[in-house]
Amino acid sequence: MNKRIKSNHKKFKQKSNKVLYNLIDKTKKKEDAERASYLEILSSQLKLPSDILAGAPIITAMGRSEVCIENYKGILEYNNALIKILTKIGSIHIEGKNLNIAYFTNEEMKITGMIHNIKYVNNK
Q1: How many CB atoms lie within 10 A of CB 15?
Q2: 20 to 30 A from 16, CA-CA: which of 33, 57, 74, 84?
Q3: For residue 86, what are the β-bridge partners?
């Protein structure tokens, strides 16, 4: 009768935590998607550009030598061949030769040089 019973409490707790955290992650992703679609619907009904409400980046290229970027968060990398810029939707990579940030403010920046490629990278 002195047989010991092994507890399954730790295994049960780990399994419960995995299920709970997976459920939280799925719920958060769903809420983010609903919020994005809500902003799109709202902007279309108010007849406003979606970038105003959603804070989407606005990229204006003037030829191959100038790019203006609005609604950015920060500069991730900067050298004469590559400039990486962080935005709300991911990052933007500008590739080229003799790249230079002519000016930047909290809302916009101007990049000059010979631009070869503009790439959108989703960080999520």
Answers
A1: 11
A2: 33
A3: 74, 91
